Amino acid sequence: MEELADVIFDVGAHKGEDSAFYLRLGYRVVAVEANPALVEHLKARFSREIAAGTYTLIGRAIGNADGAITFFVNNDVSVWGTADPRWAARNKRLGTESREIKVPCVKFSELLKSYGCPHYLKIDVEGADMLCVRDLSAIACRPRYLSLESSKTSWSDLLAEFDTLAQLGYTRFKVVDQTRHRSGTFRTRTDQALSHSFEDGASGPFGADLPGRWLSKWRAILRYVPIFLSYKTFGDENLWINRLVRRFPILHRVIPEAHWYDTHAMRE
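RESULT FIELD:
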């Protein structure tokens, strides 16, 4: 299966923060979103692009098989919607509430067979990122660029993620702070200059537009050592810190926020 140079997959499209950027760059976008309310939002936001055939919207969750799956819609933080009960339990510990609904699901490999191999694969589906990555091994599809939200609480899971990416042929990596995307000028597919300001929650640029040097597998893993320490101290798993800050928001001034990171991978 050959890479489609003009296609990006936006898996976990949320409100279209990333889809809008990819479309402006001149890519065709295949967007995947499980939350029915967000699917309706995306239909309205990208109605012209859907009609033009440049935006394909898949209103399903990613699962181990086709069918239906329980999805936890977070009532307080929409981006925390998940099909993983462990993530839903974490969200509850953090003081948010979810409601269970049934949504259709699909294996990621089936989407690749239907819509082709993208130039860039962005994955941000709470608790299911590696379902997508592992499905790449089921078919002859290797996007040149790929990103996912890596584990920050399990070192063994992080190592397994990098091992899987290496087995798929990815050799260069960047660890990107998702809270510090710089708006700026980017080049479209037709090499035109484009000014873009990233929306809150966006995954930001990819590929050659990412800041910093591409790293080897082990150098990228070492970048996660201080990230794990910070997350252990100030992140979601430290319930005492989180509850204290929720009760006294002024503490944000003295207690640093644990940022969230994406791992970007490239095939050379």
